[in-house]
Design a protein that fits this description.
74% of the residues lie in helices and 0% in strands. It has helices at 2-42, 49-85, 108-112, 118-135. The protein starts with a helix and ends with a helix. The longest helix has 41 residues, at 2-42. With 136 residues, it is mostly helical. It is elongated and about 70 Å long.
C-alpha cells in the first residue's frame, strides 16, 4: 500500500514539473515575440502605435497565461503536501485541485503579480509603453 502512496506523489510531481516547464517555455516565447516585434519595428522610422498597442496586449495575455500556470503549479504543490501527510489507506488517487483554489496565494492574479513573474512582464510592458509614448 505504501508503494501506491509513492506512485501518487510521483504523479503529482510530474504535473508540477510540467507546469514549471510550461512557465519556462512561456517566458521564452514572450521574450522572443517581444524582441522580434521590437526589432522589426526598429527598422521603421515611425513605427505604428497600433502595432505597439497590439504588442502590449500580447504581453499582457502572456502575463496572465504565465500567472495561470503558476497558479496551477501552486495548487498541485498544495495537493502534494496534502497527500504527503496522509496514510497509505487514506490515499484516493485524486488529482482534483479545486479545494486549493480558495487560497489567495493560488489565484491567477496573485500569481501574475508574484516576485518571479511581475518584474519580467513589467519590464516588457514598460518598454513597449515607453515606445508608444515616445512615438506619439
Amino acid at each position: 500500500m505504501e508503494g501506491n502512496k509513492q506512485k501518487h506523489l510521483e504523479f503529482i510531481q510530474h504535473v508540477i514539473s510540467r507546469m514549471g516547464g510550461n512557465l519556462f517555455y512561456l517566458r521564452g516565447w514572450s521574450i522572443t515575440l517581444a524582441a522580434g516585434l521590437l526589432a522589426l519595428l526598429s527598422r521603421e522610422k515611425n513605427p505604428s502605435n497600433s502595432t505597439l498597442v497590439i504588442l502590449a496586449i500580447v504581453i499582457v495575455l502572456f502575463w496572465v497565461y504565465d500567472g495561470y500556470f503558476l497558479s496551477l503549479e501552486r495548487k498541485y504543490r498544495d495537493l502534494y503536501d496534502k497527500v504527503r501527510v496522509l496514510s497509505a489507506r487514506e490515499i484516493d488517487f485524486s488529482m482534483d485541485i479545486r479545494e486549493f483554489a480558495k487560497y489567495k496565494k493560488n489565484s491567477v492574479l496573485f500569481c501574475a503579480f508574484s516576485k518571479t513573474i511581475a518584474p519580467f512582464y513589467l519590464f516588457l510592458l514598460g518598454t513597449t509603453i515607453y515606445l508608444i509614448i515616445k512615438g506619439g
